[in-house]
Amino acid sequence: MGAWATGNPSRGNPGIGNGRPNFNLGSIWAQTRAVHIKGTRVNYNMPAQRMQEQPLLHLQEVSKLYSGETPFLALDRISIEIKKGELVSIVGPSGSGKSTLLHMLGCLDMPTGGEIFVEGKAVSKMSDDAVADLRRDTIGFVFQEFNLAPTLSTFANVELPLMIRGVPKETRREIVERNLAAVGMSDKAHNLPSQLSGGQKQRVAIARALANSPKLILADEPTGNLDSKSSAEVMSHILQLHKKLGITVILVTHDHALAEKTDRIIRIMDGKIESDTRKKHAGKNTG
Amino acid sequence: MKNSELAELAFNSLRYRSLRSWLAILGIVIGVASIISLISISVGINDSIQKNLGGLGANVVTISPGGLRADRFVVGGGGQFGAPTATEGKITFREADQLRSIAGVSRLDARVQGNARVNYRNKNTSISIIGTEPSAFPLSAANTILYGRSLGIGDLSSAVLGYSVATSTFNESMLNKQIKINNVPFRVVGVLNQSGSSFSATDRSIFISQKAAEKLFSQNQYVSSIVVVAADGSNPDTVAAGITQKLLSLHRVSVEKQDFTVTTATTLQSTISSVTNTLAIFLGGIASISLIVGGIGVANAMFTSVLEQTKYIGLLKSLGTRRGTVMKLFLFEACMVGLVGGVIGVALSFAVSGVLGGFGLPTRITPELILLGIGFSIIIGAVSGILPARNAASVPPVEALRYE
Ligand SMILES: Nc1ncnc2c1ncn2[C@@H]1O[C@H](COP(=O)(O)OP(=O)(O)OP(=O)(O)O)[C@@H](O)[C@H]1O
Ligand SMILES: [Mg+2]
């Protein structure tokens, strides 16, 4: 289906080009604006109020206690709902629990209290394999430290999630090439991560996070290790994901200017939510 | 993920492994090399024994009194080696005569034999004397006359010397010379060819006629052994079976209580093979210990590898790789480490057995041995990879990602 050939059929590609011809992401991924499922034209970039039925993520009184010599309560009964298509930033001082929270949202770690629901399903009741499959099919991660596999080429790094999912080789190649082109990394396809600059690494990581057409992108200070120019570049890629593809994006950042660009800002302090503010027209990306 | 893709990934991470973790495969290399080169010795020994057996005569069946079957090396040439059997049993000349009519028996040689003092000039030695039936001789010794003639029927004071007796013991042209056996004079009428088999006593024996030996050893009721030459075109093993049946019924005993031993080249070969196989298992077993130690090395290397790749494992998990798949990935890697160790070990074993060959030890490396060595090392790799792979699979993704 369109540019996202292997996407989960329940996901569409509702993006619209923003008219910037030099911006690959938009122009390539925006080829298809909507998909037809069983003959019905479905536009997934629906206004927020129509998606009220089921939040994508729902945290219910989630706590995380790091046990050890000095036990530490990193998250203290946090309740959040994240709807489909939201662009959320999580801010707060260092050590306040942002990464911990993001790991919970991405099912990378299990809470010690409370419950996480992904599309209504309680994660604690899922098997280990089911949670792995959930991460594989639904969530894309972008980390501050890039986390590219050091022994795999740019190409192979982006291919990895597709391989894990069992996508056939030919299709994999197509998707990888398209995704690398979208982040402007086609010419470095055969480089090892050690042969890339920080900004380039993060662009590869974005291409990888998108490989399995996730519904949700979780980014933990994706520009934390980058200079301002690469930062801007990487951030525009990430913001485009939301704008053009309607992907739900949750972004942990220190950068207030950046947070201001998002629709909703969740402020964390000492493992608790200090504030959760929405902009007025949050969730509406299409004109 | 497909297995082939997992193998590719495993191979990739192998390529970038640290030198330290590679050194750990040394154990497998040494283990495989020692297993193969030690077993190659027993293969080599078996080879040279079987080659020697060729000189014993493939169409000869030997029957000797006493029961411990397959425990005695009674050889076609008439000599024996190894411990004599403890089980009682006797075969009379009359019984021997009844075997002559069995199908496939071409000639039958009921022998009387023993050791006797042999004098020639000033030499005085103890030599094995075999009283043979002239009509069957020298066929029954699986030999031919080198020079002189064979024993004649009714030839009571003639002797034919085995090759070594003529060449080594007396070391001169013995034809027509007189020797004394237990003080009875005999004239040397012929010398046998070299049998070429170190298992046959033929070369080290003196042959006289059965009648002369009966007198010499005062033994006229029981045979020492019977040598049957199977007819052309008949299977010696079938003939042996017929003889066994007949003797069992003559002795009125069951197979379990068999009080005689029937040997053919085939049974002898399998007896010897079973001995060299035991040797192979023994040597291989000793060497296996080193391979198991090698396995510990692989396990160590794998633990190192898992640790080195903690972040990578975290990444794989964050990308949604299932626990079982991570485990498989590291098992594959361990198998590959085993494979690499095995291949290097095989190469080394060729060098080692070459050196052993230089010291005069017969060695031979068979294709089976190579497969065994490589297969074994893959298995060792897999087994020692289980724990590290389980460790890898159970790394919580978030901890792996936070790992420094
Ligand atoms: N494995 C752990 N064991 C014990 N304490 C931990 C562990 N991981 C994190 N913490 C603690 O939990 C708290 C929250 O950590 P977290 O990484 O979520 O902070 P953060 O908000 O992401 O900070 P930063 O902005 O510096 O990345 C910190 O005080 C940290 O020391
Ligand atoms: Mg953090």
Task: Please describe what this structure looks like.
By secondary structure, chain A is α/β, with parallel strands linked by helices. Helix content of chain A is 30%, strand content 23%. Chain A is globular. Chain B is an alpha+beta fold. Chain B has two domains: 3-51 and 280-402, no CATH class; 60-233, no CATH class. Chain B has twelve helices and twelve strands. Chain B has a six-stranded mixed beta barrel with strand order 4-5-10-7-9-8. In chain B, strand 8 and strand 9 (184-192) form a beta hairpin. In chain B, helix 1 (3-15) packs across helix 10 (323-358), helix 3 (26-53) packs antiparallel against helix 8 and helix 3 (26-53) runs antiparallel to helix 11. The longest helix of chain B has 44 residues, at 265-308. Chain B starts with a helix and ends with a helix. The chains are: A alpha/beta (287), B alpha+beta (404). Chain A binds chain B through residues 103, 106, 108-109, 128-129, 132-137, 139, 141, 143, 147-152, 156, 160-161, 163-166, 208, 212, and chain B through 1-2, 5, 9, 12-13, 15-16, 311-312, 314-325, 396-398, 401. Magnesium ion (MG) binds at residues 98-99, 220 of chain A.
For the termini of chain B, the CA-CA separation is: 28 Å
- The CATH homologous superfamily of the domain at 83-110 and 127-278 in chain A is named P-loop containing nucleotide triphosphate hydrolases
Shape of chain A: globular
Task: Note the run of SSEs of chain B as H and E.
Answer: HHHEEEHEEEEHEEEHEHEHHHHH
Strand content of chain B: 15-25%
Helicity range of the residues of chain B? 40-55%
Rg of chain A (C-alpha, Å): 18 Å
SS summary, helix count of chain B: 12
Which runs of chain B of at least 5 residues are low in confidence (pLDDT < 50)? 69-86
**Which pair of chains has the greatest number of interface residues, and how are they split between the two chains?**
A-B, 30 and 26 residues
CATH topology (fold) name of the domain at 83-110 and 127-278 in chain A: Rossmann fold
Give the count of structural domains of chain B. Answer: 2
